[in-house]
């Protein structure tokens, strides 16, 4: 029904057009009192407008999920029986047969954790572990399915939930309640059961199915595995899945897979082209053209090494621990955190993955109000003393359950903090801010012009890599404070909804706040052509005004001729390796009336998604709020100067 698709998108387009300023229409002239704008710290979102933010809704942390299937009569903690496969707890709400079947084909990361605990702890808070349960992924994928009337098929799932692909896991079923290896996204076997080299295949790779005893593909070559098996009795290692004695079952072989150690290995998922030839992920292409590739530095060297974002070698030590003993004490240790700028917006009972969290269902976790302090000493004392009255839903009506859940939340929040610190570290490893450089000495009543130079100091690839699938934002936030401590001027501020004050801001289009005309934003967007032939930045390759183009469907001109849908281009604004851009600003003279010491502060800010795009996808208010909270600050710094 191509016709129906067209109408669906046209309707979406009309809706979008309403959110954007009409062509040629001037946005509000900056009123003098509006020049003092709020500082761009995460703003409490107070006045709801088109997308009402319910401050009570602290639980809506996940996007649309399919109905949960509660299991009658199952108590919290059930499923820990000794006869569970490999002693792994099953999840309430997950079909135990599906779980056992999945495990027999694609062992869960929890199984690998029995002997690779350190690696598992790094991986379980990584973006790879987050890929399938990411609320934003689910929400965006749902939107794409609606917009394309399902023709997007398994496109997104291939990379984000590769085991779901291999198992034909139904798209409509809930991801957070899926069998472990599905829910785990890019889980261990999604990388270590690949034995053929793949190129730019948009995530279409084969992952070898089989029980835990099947070979793993690694960078060492199996001598450690062989040594462990030769010593299997003292190590309590089992080599047969039907062996019921205590101990851990091992992969019988470690096979060296050459490509795993090279950048090519990452290309199938880190270079994405949608059907009409638009590249959504381009980091591989940028890397190939950059200085690091010429020097033979691999993605792994910067993203799995000792120092986040820099090719400064690896840590060394044991990589497996079996029954308390190490096999080889000095191996190269590849860090499986896969350093990157991303941070989770999921409920911390659901992500990072935590075996102890599995005794409660995902649905139960979504009702656990961690932000209000459930299970903390102070909260529980207030409840016990009758100072707080909460109607706890089961199982949280038990104080013991709440306290046990809080221990998991605390542990997970600690891991999330570590991930955030590494996100800042990797972004700082790839960027530098020079300045401010003043065009002339500051004078009272005179406009003040200055610039910063923002530099990509990494040899790897562009900063940001310019992913359009994720649309990460990276922008400069600059603020001027007067001698009396008042905020006088700012660029890179956020509106009430958490958006930058550009053409995508509802507050700018409604004239509530001035547009941030000097905004320095490195985000990549699509450029689409509107009805008058003018260009507009858009977040999906959909022409919203005329000739609506269904996403991922061939246009009417063969793609092989144009190599992209007609009238759509990518607008890359990111910094190529070792390059820099100047961010120029002018502060109006009337704001510099007072003599004295002024303070000029700057920081780069980064987050995975713009809020307007989350709104477009139907993200819950809590998801939007979490995204704002998870914004990271890079190189925050300030200078003082005197205006005589
Ligand atoms: C070929 C592999 C591939 C495909 C197919 C793919 N993605 Fe991604 N996706 C990635 C990679 C790689 C990243 C990380 C990009 C970065 O950090 O620069 C990513 C990041 C994201 C993010 C941001 C991180 C998060 O979880 O919040 C979202 C959302 C997302 N993708 C949604 C989708 C949707 C929806 C589709 C289908 C339309 C899709 N992706 C298809 C590889 C893919
Ligand atoms: C019973 C313990 C045990 C379990 C369970 C286990 N491993 Fe291992 N693994 C080892 C040992 C021991 C080594 C050898 C370490 C060394 O060389 O020091 C190893 C080595 C590896 C290597 C390197 C292989 C090479 O030689 O290049 C990879 C990759 C690996 N394991 C992945 C996995 C994955 C994935 C899982 C889960 C599906 C898993 N392991 C489960 C014990 C285990
Ligand atoms: C995105 C792909 C990817 C995922 C997911 C992944 N690994 Fe790896 N793993 C690698 C790469 C790349 C190396 C380095 C290979 C080399 O030595 O060149 C590696 C190395 C290893 C090694 C050898 C020791 C070392 O640190 O170099 C072990 C053991 C291992 N991985 C286990 C695991 C386990 C267990 C998981 C899940 C918790 C996992 N891996 C998830 C890509 C992955
Ligand atoms: C099976 C597909 C797949 C493979 C193979 C893969 N990745 Fe990824 N990677 C993804 C997806 C999907 C995401 C984004 C997940 C999300 O946040 O939702 C991602 C995210 C990342 C990030 C961003 C992390 C962050 O915290 O922001 C880095 C860095 C990364 N991958 C590096 C690598 C490297 C290096 C390799 C090769 C050794 C690799 N990946 C192999 C799919 C893959
Ligand atoms: C010389 C070191 C270096 C190499 C090599 C390198 N990276 Fe990066 N990478 C970085 C740094 C630093 C950042 C953080 C700054 C940035 O975003 O560019 C980063 C960020 C990323 C991100 C986060 C998202 C984004 O949009 O920037 C992804 C995904 C990523 N790299 C994947 C890869 C892949 C895949 C390869 C190999 C094809 C690779 N990187 C090679 C240093 C490197």
Q: Would you kindly provide a brief summary of this structure?
A:
This protein has 644 residues and is of the alpha+beta class. The chain has three domains: 241 residues; 63 residues, no CATH class; 167 residues, Sandwich (Immunoglobulin-like), CATH 2.60.40.10.
Annotation, overall tally of beta strands: 20
Give the mean pLDDT.
81
The main pleated sheet reads as: 4 strands, antiparallel
Helical fraction? 25-40%
Strands ordered across the widest β-sheet: 14-13-19-20
List its traits.
binds heme C; 644 residues; 20 strands
Any overview of this molecule?
- The chain has 644 residues and is α+β, with helices and mostly antiparallel strands.
- It folds into three domains: 93-333; 358-420, no CATH class; 430-524 and 572-643, Sandwich (Immunoglobulin-like), CATH 2.60.40.10.
- It is built from 23 helices and 20 strands.
- The protein has a four-stranded antiparallel beta sheet with strand order 14-13-19-20. A three-stranded antiparallel beta sheet has the order 11-12-18.
- A hairpin with a 5-residue loop joins strand 13 (473-481) and strand 14 (487-491).
- The chain is globular, with a radius of gyration of 26 Å.
- The termini are far apart.
- The model is unreliable at 1-90, 543-555 and 557-564 (pLDDT under 50).
- One heme C (HEC) binds at residues 107, 111-112, 114-116, 188-189, 192, 212, 216, 218-222, 224-225, 228, 237, 248, 250-251, 254, 256, 319-320, 322, 327-328, 331.
